[in-house]
């Protein structure tokens, strides 16, 4: 559990530089939606893909002409654009997100972009998609919203089709700082907002409850820090950027006993980045959980 510095932390917002967040009605997304976040998404995508042996798709799905693929909570569409470059243009690709600001300006002709939440997908999509991809919505969905989202994904999956959901482990493998203070930031932000930090562990059970079968969980381990070269830098940028993105959810609630000023918050994350860069054998973990919807 994170260390709380004050037994009754003040709820008066701590002054800090604000970033741009989504204005989608009812959204509980904790992270920003600005150009810095687009860069982080694109960089993070490289790190995650390498962690899974450069595979964009882990399930045994067989995509054919006329099939439809959905990227749910697509962000900057990094994964979908990569996929588009590797499959025939006769396969239709769809991307949804509550914030369209990060969508590509000129997507390929077979890519369709839509502003929508995974908790309320278009009714006409029932039984449509042969493959659905979703990544890192642990900062977007509360514990109450996850069952709704997975039921929606089950509804729009084509019988016999597959879903692939990638979520992060909240921990870090590191010989010198496995409990660095920076790692407390998501625990605090998620705790007060009812987001589920253990989503990667809980997803197999949730998918079964939603009706999916053939459920598999695959671990992807990736190096974090300059010690691992470009791959490590990509991962460090993604992870530290995630912590920085949680600044407003924490400081707007008075710091939650984590820090007392914006400068202190920044210093904690700066120190985390330094240690990652200087400490060999620092690794993070993601998990891709894929599952099938039974056929007719």
TrEMBL record:
Database matches in Gene3D superfamilies: Vaccinia Virus protein VP39
SUPFAM superfamilies according to UniProt: S-adenosyl-L-methionine-dependent methyltransferases
GO MF, one example: methyltransferase activity
Domain of life: Eukaryota
Pfam families: Methyltransf_25
Entry-linked InterPro entries: Methyltransf_25 (IPR041698), SAM-dependent_MTases_sf (IPR029063), UbiE/COQ5_MeTrFase_CS (IPR023576)
UniProt keyword terms in alphabetical order: Methyltransferase, S-adenosyl-L-methionine, Transferase
GO-annotated biological processes: methylation
Residues covered by the Methyltransferase domain: 69-161
Protein name (Swiss-Prot/TrEMBL): Methyltransferase domain-containing protein
